Amino acid sequence: MIPRPFHSPPKASPRRGVVPLWMPIALVVLLVGFGAILLERSATGRGVARVDLTRYRLHHGDRWFSPDWREGLEELLLRGGSLLATDLDAREALKAEVLALPFVAAVEEGELLWPAGLTLRVRLIDPIACVRVGQEFLPVGELSIREPPTAEPPKGEPPMTKRVVLLPGWSDVPHKVGLDFLPVLQPTPFEWEVNLPLLGEPIDDPLLLSALSMVRSYRDNLTEKQRSLFGRVVFDVSAGTAPDGRPGGAVLYLEGMRVVAFGDAPAERGHGELPDAIKWGHALEGILRSVEGSPWRLLDVRFDRPEYDGESSK
Q1: pLDDT per position as a tens digit, 198-216
Q2: CA gyration radius for the chain?
Q3: N or C: which end of the chain has fewer CB within 10 A?
Q4: 256-286: per-residue pLDDT in tens?
Q5: Does residue 38 fall inside a structural domain?
Q6: Is residue 8 domain-resident?
Q7: Which residue spans within the chain are E strands per DSSP?
Q8: Percentage of the chain lying above the pLDDT 70 cut
Q9: What is the C-alpha separation between 290 and 179, in angstroms, rounded?
Q10: Which domain holds residue 70?
């Protein structure tokens, strides 16, 4: 196992503020994404609320929450001291510090729990895939952000765009969220083996983004229960051609040495490519066929009739 790369935080960032005196907080789970709860316990002076941030409880319900994320939140709290419940500037600084964590998507202030503390509503970035770096795996998340206004902004709100980020969360095996394992994206950029990009920063590697377009299609066309049947799966877009030599070399590697030839990744879909919904239907059919006792090594889902080991299905 190679040693994990260590990256110190950047000296300056528009999302990071100075380390203030903290107030205990509650990070509350939202229905729209992952969340956590940090429930503060206060130390109350004579008529003035002061809270020690080193006294807290962390909850995240039954949703996936990386130990590395827990550690990041705990370190943030343990760096703090105390503040007055009425100190609005310190509360805003606290929100900025939480938002600066690489796995946090948004922070909204909740209610003031006088004199016990303050709640903050926090939405975390949803991990949808993972990448292998050395002998371990890191999750990859997708964050919707609003484009900054231009010199002549269009009418209405600016459009939303997707930003792909590498998240904290080292693991010896591919991450499992809910019922299914997160797909492993290949190829991992070679330079990451030497110099891992800063966690939380956007990913711009074209092959990795192409593999991620398969993940979006996978999630859009299959339910969580259906995806769980695929087990640990790798999405690889590194080959230029399919196994038969034709264009479209995206493949799925499944457990049991099975390979699914997918054709073009959705991001590079060519003319005449079979719709993704049909391809995923063929792949699911192959998974069920294998479970029912009809093993196969190669499944080609590019055609109206899927082909198993070079022979068209009947």
Answers
A1: 888 888 899 999 999 999 9
A2: 23
A3: C
A4: 999 999 999 998 877 778 999 999 999 999 9
A5: yes
A6: no
A7: 27-28, 37-44, 49-59, 104-113, 117-124, 126-133, 136-146, 160-166, 176-177, 180-181, 184-186, 234-236, 250-254, 258-263, 298-300, 307-308, 311-312
A8: 69
A9: 19
A10: 27-124
